[in-house]
Queue: 2 jobs
Job 1
Amino acid sequence: MSKLPNVGTSIFTIMSQMAAENNAINLSQGFPNFPVDFRLTEILSKLASENVHQYTPMSGLPSLLEKIAILTKQSYQRTVSPKGEILITAGATEGIFATIQALVKAGEEVIILDPSYDCYEAPILLSNAKPIRVSLNSDFTPNWEKINNVVNKKTKLIIINNPHNPTGKTWSVDDFLQLEKLVDSYPNLLVLSDEVYEYITFEKKHISINERSKLYERSIVISSFGKSLHITGWKVGYVIAPVNIMIEIKKVHQFLVFSVSSIAQHAINEYLDIVDFNSIRTFYQEKRTLFRNLMSETKLELLPCEGTYFQVASYAAISDETDIDFTKRLVTEFGVATIPISTFYANGDDHKCIRFCFAKDDKTLVQAAERLLKL
C-alpha cells in the first residue's frame, strides 16, 4: 500500500513533456534558461582542481555559514549564529522536508495556504499528521478569518510563502501583525516561512520573518541560493532557526543527506564576496517589465506581480474551459507551455488563471508573446 496514494506525475512534468512533444516554448517550469554569471562558473572551474571534494561538516561549510550570517545582517538587520542557527540544505525542498519531519508529530495539524507549492503536503502526510488547506482571498492575500477559524491546540505549524509561488504576491505589514497575534494566542504554534524568492521583488522589498523580532523564536526561514543565483540544479539552500529548533532539524538532515555538495558550497562561498544581491532584483524586474509589455497586446489579463519570476494571467475573457484544458490547448495549438493555477489547490479551485515563468532569455519571451498574440 502506498504511503502517498494521491501523489502521481506532477503537472510540471506533464506540461514539460507536452512542450517537448509539441515543440512548444516552455514557460511552465520555474527555472532559468540563460547562462549563470560567468564569474561563478570561473570560480567553479578553478575549484575543480583543488581539494574541495570531500564531505563538509554536516551543518555546512563554516565560512559559508559565516557569510550567510553577514548576508542576513545586511539584508534584514538580524544577527544569527553561524554555528547554531544556520543549516545548509540540499535545496529549499530538503530544508522544508527536514523541518516538517523534525517538528511535526503524528496527529498534529499543519496549515497550508492555497494555492501552494506541492512540496509542503508530502512530509506532513509522511509524519502521519494532517494538512489543513486554507484558501487565500481572491486577490491572493491571506484570509485571516479563515485561518483563525481552523487553528487549534493540535496546530503545530503554519506554512507561509512570501514572495508567493505561484501568484507573485507579497505580504503586508498588517499580515505579519495578524500572524504575530496568532502565534501569541497559541504557544505551541510554529511558523515555517518559505522565502526562496526573497531577492526577486520589485517596487517594494518583501517583508521577511528575519525582520520580525517577535517571531524569531517561533519561526523557521527557508532560503535558496538556487533561486537567488540562477543555479537551481545545484540544489543548495539554507535554513535559519533558533538553536533549540535547529538542533531537531539537524537530527533529520544528517540522515537525509548528511552534507551538501562540497564544491557547490565552496563556489558559492567565494561568489558571495563579489555578487550584488540588488542586481538580482534589478535583473528580474527588467525581465518582468519586458514580459508584461510584450503580453499587454494579448487578450490575457495580467495580474499584479510583486515578486518571484512568475506572472499569473487570467484567460476568463477568452474561454470557459478549465484551466487544465486551456493550458493543454495552449501547448498543442499555440506552442506555449504554462501551468494551470488550479493544480496548486487541494480542491482544484479553478479561477481561470495560468502561470508563466519569465526567467527566460529575451528571445524566448518575445517568441512566446508572438505566439500568444494569436489567441
Note: The chain is about 40% helix and 15% strand.
Job 2
Amino acid sequence: MKLTMVGGGGFRTPLVYAALLRDREPGRVTSVALVDTDAGRLATMARILADQAAGVADAPTVTTHTDAAEGLRGADFVFSAIRVGGLPGRATDERIGQSHGVIGQETVGFGGISYALRTLPVVLELAHTIARVAPQAWVINFTNPAGVVTEAMSTVLGERVIGICDSPIGLARRALSALDIDESVTSPAVELEYAGLNHLGWLTGLRVHGRDVLPDLLSQPDRIESFEEGKLFGAEWIQTLGALPNEYLHYYSFRRDVLQADQYAPLTRGRYLVDQQQSFWTDAATAAHPLRTWEQCRHEREVTYMATNRDSAGMGERDDADLVSGGYENVAIALMRGIAHDQQARLILNVRNNGALPDVDADAVVEIPCTVDAKGAHPVVGAAVPDFGRGLVTTIKYVERQTLEAALGGSRSAALRALASHPLIDSVRVARALLDDARSSFADDLSYLR
C-alpha cells in the first residue's frame, strides 16, 4: 500500500514511520510519499527516516514531493497533518489572545478559531486535489483543530475522511495503568465509552472483559491523582463529575487559573516551540545521527507539554509514565488495516454523527467510539455525552459551524459570531477586537473575510 503524508515535513512524522516499521503484517504500507511546501525540511525529514530505518529489512520506501498532486497519485491512504502559518502563527495567536485577556491556545477558544480560519481554505483545496487525483484514497486527518477540519473536508470527500486524535486513547491508557490493569487500550478486551467533540469529550465507561472498571477508579482519590488528568482536575472535581474529562477541558473548568498562569509564564507554548524548532531543524540537517537529535527534541517537547496548565494546578514536573505518546500513530495503523483488510476494530474517531449523538445533526463531526471495517468507520450506537456537558457540546458545535461558514463563504459576520459565541470569550467587543487583530496579523491568510 502507498501512504501519502501531506505535511510530511512536520515534526511528528517519525512517530508514524516508527509504527510502519513495526508493522510486519501482510498488506502493510510499503511506500511513503512525504508532501510539504518546505523542501529543506523534507530533505531533513528524509534523513531522519533513513536513520530510523537503518537495519530494518523491507522498510517502506520514502519519496519527497513539494507538488501535492504528484505525491498523492496512486495513494491508498492520505494523512493530512499541516500547519498553516507554522509555529509563528501559533505564537501570534497566543500573543493576540493574551493582549485581550483571553486564552490563545491553538485548538481552544480564540486560538482555535483563528487557526481554523487560516486552515480551512487550504484543507478544502487539498480535499478537492485528493478527489481529483486520488479519488479512491481514504483520508486520515491529523490537522488541528481536528473536528472542524475533518468536517470541512467531509463536505468534499464525504465519509472517506476520518479524523483522529491521541487525547482520548491516552486518557484511557493512563486510567487503566492507574488501576494496575495490564491491557492495551486497543485490545478487543477493552471497550471505551467516550463521547463529545475533538478536545472536548468525557470518558464515561471503561469496560475490561465486559466489566466497567471506571467506578473502581472513581472511588479511589489516590488512584485518580496518580495520573496526569487526575492531577490536573483534582480527585474531588472528577468524582463530582462522575467521568474522566479530556485534558483540554481544563481550559474551560479552570479558565481564570490557566489564563493567569499563561500571563505569568516567561514564554507562551508557541513561542517556546518556535525557538526550539529553529534549533532542531538546523541541528538535524547536518547531524550524523539525526534521529537522536529528533528524539532529544521530542523528549523536551513532551516534558513541557501543557506546562502552564500544570503550573495552575500546582502539579510540578510530568511523571515519566505521562511522557509516553498517546498512540495516535497506532490508532492510524489500526484504522488503515481495518479499512484495507477488513480487520474489524473499535476506535475513538472523529466522524460524521449519523444519529449517534442526539444533540447534533447527522453531518456534524463528533468524537466517539466507532467500529471499523472495509466500508469505513461506523459510530457505535449508544454513545452519550454526560448531561452536564451537552450544552457545551452544542455551543462549541455552533462555533465550529460558524467558523466553517466563514471559511466557505468568506463571511466576516460568521467569524465574529463564532468568536462572540465561544464560552472562553466573554464580550462581543473583545471578539470584534480579536478578529480585527487576527485579520491584521494574518492579512494574506484572512484576506478572504469580507
Note: The two ends are 43 Å apart (CA to CA).
